[in-house]
Design goal:
Helix content is 46%, strand content 24%. By secondary structure, it is of the alpha/beta class. The structure holds S-adenosylmethionine (SAM).
Length: 327
């Protein structure tokens, strides 16, 4: 209760005394308020700083991830997205729709690349959002959508960050776009985002290369020639107790060689199913191709399909919404 500290200028006179009394009596709380607010400011400032530092660390770490290198997608574009593969998308999407039977027309194509699947679905009358990290591929997607005269919403974002709650009847992740992160927990984040983005009753399909198939066909080195005469040499190495694969791809074009290394997690059918269930999906089913054949010894691909359950509450809300829509 030191008045001099609280009000150093106030010394004598009745009014002053009264003030002094008041100041003396409320001084400590005034000072405590002041001290508390200083502490509060410091805490918030500290937290903001910690948050900022964490964000910076994340941004720096992410900037060095292999898929951030646009040159990789540019150099291997003709290899990964050949005319044949792009043309296949119409038939593939017809099969995806037959397998998933979505209850609505709003679709998320996660890691859409140059929009193969997004555009094929938009042609079939779906309202599609295509999300991808790579600017170069999104530019291709925009050009292709313009040429096909379809409307697609293109979003540049990381699959670990994109979530639009309860918005989509169908979410797809096609052509081995899952499992890209060093930290496997981040694959769970992606599954959580896919689940969160689905409407109740919505369905999710992941199409990738399964561990069982890889174990069967893995060769240390393979090579292929592209229509323009360039040659791609692929080298593979399994590591981390058969959970991850490291790939080294070199492209020989016009007498020069460019080499890129990348790695990702490979899931077995059971591992992917477990993770989807942990993320909240129900009725998870596996298939060995988009025709819906069993995930057995002949499986060429790993297709996992899971649904977001309709709870009693969402069911009621859906009924009310439908009733309102009917007027
Ligand atoms: C093999 S391509 C598949 C493209 C497309 N799904 C298809 O079927 O043609 C993988 C895609 O994932 C995208 N990608 C890679 N890492 C990503 C990330 N962290 N967030 C979002 N997209 C990412 C790449 O830009 C690329 O378009």
């Amino acid at each position: 209760m030191n008045v001099r500290v609280a009000r150093p200028g106030i010394k004598r006179g009745p009014y002053v005394r009264r003030r002094r009394w008041r100041v003396e009596n409320c001084g400590p709380s005034v000072r405590m308020d002041a001290r508390a607010s200083t502490i509060e400011t410091k805490i918030w400032g500290g937290l903001a700083l910690v948050g900022y530092a964490a964000n910076m660390r994340k941004t720096l770490r992410r900037a060095t991830e292999w898929f951030e290198d646009e040159a990789f997608w540019r150099e291997f574009y003709p290899f990964m997205f050949s005319e044949r593969r792009i043309a296949e998308a119409d038939e593939q999407m017809a099969k995806v729709l037959a397998l998933t039977k979505p209850s609505g027309k709003v679709v998320l194509d996660l890691c859409c690349g140059p929009g193969r699947c997004s555009i094929a679905l938009a042609r079939k009358g779906f309202r599609v959002t295509g999300v991808d990290r790579t600017n170069y591929l999104l530019k291709k997607a925009r050009e292709r959508a313009r040429a096909a005269r379809v409307n697609v919403e293109w979003v540049q974002n990381d699959m670990r960050d994109f979530v639009r709650l309860n918005s989509f009847a169908l979410v797809i992740s096609m052509f081995t776009s899952f499992g890209y992160f060093d930290d496997k927990q981040e694959d769970m984040t992606v599954l959580g985002n896919m689940f969160g983005s689905l409407q109740a009753g919505g369905i999710c399909l992941i199409e990738t290369l399964g561990k069982e198939r890889l174990a069967k066909v893995l060769q240390a080195t393979t090579s292929s020639e592209l229509p323009d005469g360039s040659v791609v040499v692929e080298r593979h190495r399994i590591f981390d107790d058969w959970t991850r694969i490291e790939n080294e791809w070199s492209i020989l074009r016009d007498g020069r060689v460019k080499t890129f290394k990348f790695h990702h997690t490979i899931y077995s059918g059971q591992e992917l199913r477990d993770r989807m269930e942990w993320a909240g999906f129900v009725g998870v089913k596996l298939y060995g191709n988009l025709n819906g054949d069993e995930y057995g010894p002949e499986a060429e691909r790993l297709i996992a399909i899971g649904r977001k359950a309709v709870t009693k509450r969402t069911e009621k809300r859906l009924r009310v919404t439908k009733a309102k829509a009917r007027g």
